[in-house]
Write a structure and sequence with these properties.
Mean pLDDT: 95
Strand order of the largest sheet: 1-2
Strand content: under 5%
Low-confidence stretches: none
Shape: globular
Number of helices: 16
Largest sheet: 2 strands, antiparallel
Distance between the termini: 28 Å
Helix content: over 70%
CATH class: Mainly Alpha
Structural class: mainly alpha
CATH architecture: Orthogonal Bundle
CATH topology: Farnesyl Diphosphate Synthase
CATH superfamily: Farnesyl Diphosphate Synthase
Oligomer: single chain
Order of helices and strands: HHHHEEHHHHHHHHHHHH
């Protein structure tokens, strides 16, 4: 049984072994660049952990893990373009270094590369693996589209928001785990339960991110605390506040959306969150969804001891401070 750091090292080594063509360099160099920028490699590690539940030989799932990580980084390239983001993991984003057109095309090729990794899987599981991967990838794109549309709407409901983060963030975690189970020969029922665990865990993970954006330690969070407030992003916290606030506070809240004095804006809205106990409500919702996730994991027909690493990793990610 591998430890989490050992699985991360396996993923890093596999990424470093991948050889992309040298030419055209402006097509392939951006791929090498973003794939080696680092990160926790959460999705491929979850995939390998899921595979290991049913087959101790995790090497059978390495190509699937590479497919998921390649796809994930492809979405980051395109997301950064859409968000006009200058930095990714503390480094210049691909479109800043190579230009938007090159970044789009490199991202497109990464989707092809992800599928090439999948074609190296055992033919007995290939069809189910492709179906799982394609369904997951489509869901992520749907989530990104909804996220963009929500920026233009003032009537987004909490249910709509939860569905958006389910698609944009959570289905990739669920899909990673289901794919790992499929590659290892798990039953359809167990693969589906792992998907349910991953999806609900992913929703809880994003809700925790919403909370940390307001209440995280600036020295540990890794990005500006209050960034969601500054950009008027419709998070669970803001939507819950709009649901509960009285008319006078709602009017004040609306006025804050135009406030360019960011420290005072963050202070004012955070005070409203405290007044309406929004943080406590968000934590309660996050814990409720996490409980649903762990209920699915408990039903997977594998002895409890084998699930320990998965449980510990999920718990550590939810309890993170950044």
């Amino acid at each position: 049984m591998y430890t989490i750091p050992e699985l991360q090292q396996l993923v890093e080594a596999a990424i470093n072994r991948v050889e992309y063509p040298k030419q055209p360099s402006n097509l392939y160099e951006p791929i090498r660049y973003i794939m080696r920028l680092g990160g926790k490699r959460i999705r491929p590690v979850l995939l390998l952990l899921s595979s290991e539940l049913f087959n101790p030989d995790v090497t059978i799932a390495i190509e699937a893990a590479l497919a998921i990580e390649t796809f994930h980084n492809f979405t980051l390239i395109h997301d950064d373009i859409m968000d006009n983001a200058p930095l990714r993991r503390g480094q210049d984003t691909v479109h800043i270094k190579w230009g938007v057109n090159n970044a789009i095309l490199s991202g497109d090729v990464m989707m092809v590369e992800a599928n090439k990794h999948l074609t190296l899987l055992n033919t007995e599981v290939l069809k189910d693996a492709l179906n799982c991967f394609n369904s997951t990838a489509q869901g992520v794109c749907e989530g990104q589209q909804l996220d963009m549309e929500f920026e233009q709407r003032e009537d987004v409901s909490i249910d709509e928001y939860i569905n958006m983060i389910r698609l944009k963030t959570a289905v990739l975690l669920g899909g990673s785990m289901k794919l790992g189970a499929i590659v290892a020969g798990a039953s359809t029922a167990d693969a589906s339960l792992l998907y349910d665990f991953g999806e609900n865990f992913g929703i809880a993970f994003q809700l925790q991110d919403d909370i940390l954006d307001v209440y995280g330690d600036p020295l540990k969070f890794g990005k500006q605390v209050g960034g969601d407030i500054i950009s008027n992003k419709q998070t669970f916290l803001l939507l819950k506040l709009k649901e509960l606030a009285n008319p006078d506070d709602l009017k004040l809240l609306e006025q804050q959306s135009y406030n360019t004095d960011y420290p005072s804006k963050i202070e004012f809205i955070t005070a409203l969150y405290s007044q309406y106990k929004i943080r406590e409500l968000a934590v309660t919702e996050m814990k409720h969804i996490l409980e649903i996730a762990f209920t699915s994991l408990e039903k997977v027909s594998i002895e409890t001891a084998k699930k320990t690493k998965l449980t510990e990793l999920a718990t550590s990610l939810i309890n993170r401070e950044h």
